[in-house]
Amino acid sequence: MTIKNYINGKYQNPIENIWLDNYNPSNGEIYGQIPNSSKADVENAYKAAKSAFTQWSQTTFEERSRILIKISELLEANLQRFAEAESKDNGKPVSLAKAVDIPRAASNFRFFGNAITQFASESHESVGQQAINYTLRQPIGVVGCISPWNLPLYLFTWKIAPAIAAGNCVVAKPSEVTAMTAYLLGEICNEAGLPKGVLNIVHGLGTTTGQAIVEHPEIKAISFTGGTATGAHIARVAAPMFKKLSLELGGKNPNLIFADCDYDNMLETTVRSSFANQGQICLCGSRIFVETSIYEKFKTDFVNKVKALKVGHPSETETNIGALVSKSHLEKVKQYIDIAKAENGKILCGGNSVVVKGYENGYYLEPTVIEVPNNECRVNQEEIFGPVVTIMPFKTEKEALEMANKVKYGLSATLWTNHLKRTMQLSNQLQVGIVWVNTWMMRDLRTPFGGVKASGVGREGGFEALRFFTEAKNVCIKY
Ligand code: NAD
What we know:
41% helix
């Protein structure tokens, strides 16, 4: 399978004809080639976007909305095909891609197709001065969108949909590890009648293609989701050009479990928040803190449930945990299990690779629970981004809060309690962008999404995303 760039509404080979191998994580085999696009390809994508901008930015919001909703419908009509492609590229169970990833990508287009019709600007009458101020919300022009491999189409479209809804034209790059569904999206956009050049997709490595997008002086805003180190690098490159930046970065999210919670719901959800998508979600609760009085019970029940999870081929319906995304990522995650042992962590279950019959070269790992001696150890401080969680007890609410906040990241936190005052206090004091109370990853697309500290800068979601992808201009009229 040969994946090509999608520029000006057409599939194209990379100018320098350099290709990368694309692996299927479920069996370790190469099944395709993707372009490693150069600066020249990014320049072509930019030129196509620039020439589409004049017309697209003047297209009525009803028409933009109609096209976005049509893309959404076509994604839904192609659910099975997209879900299988996502699973083959990423290693996630097909069932998960079918239930979550692809429906969410479709929702992204539908949501922003509707949101743009409701996106209003402000006006202020300057009473006593005979003047009125109003705010124009103008599209920025050509914007860059760069996304990671863990939720490939889901996060790619979470950026593209608001960008084009707001009247921008886009140069976008999906992760080089999971380019397939972004490639298929081009066809859908053509079928939906998206004018050529409004969306351009270039494939390749971050250090070549991604870097060329960030360095391009006329690409005025970058929406990036990925690792914290990459985000810091992008911020350094973009700063001298005063680009607008939205950075959605890593996480090391705490779960605070209090004895007064609804235990069964907590247990079930904590298994999911630990291991969904092989633990490769920036929002996974990777540090579990449990109140002492229920710690031993939780430990036994949680480990029993985790041991019952089935690691298997992503296409099999009974599979709970598919393959990790790549061989190098599997090695990185396994190294953290060794680090935990060296730091006196106790492996309560898992910790080993799994050989799946018939797919012996796939990248499978047992879901792993580590009891850690303290919150300072590396496995409690560094993002592992795999099917590995840590657990440890806490005595007081104050201690739980301190441990939750004592980390460089600040993306999300999950709180399990039925105590109102505690809920209110901790929600105020947790240093994160998102707090879930008695649930996990319940998403309403109207809400602001993003992190604090090393988890990022800026917010996506709802009107926050439309604000990011527009420039506010104040007009003051004296009458
Ligand atoms: P990554 O930072 O390695 O890559 C992300 C994207 O950036 C890829 O498309 C990559 O090619 C590109 N890139 C890499 N170097 C670049 C450069 N110099 N210039 C421009 N682009 C460059 O991240 P990853 O390994 O693909 O994804 C995993 C990370 O993403 C984890 O840290 C995870 O927490 C984070 N993540 C965050 C969120 C969030 O919403 N906060 C969501 C999902 C994933």
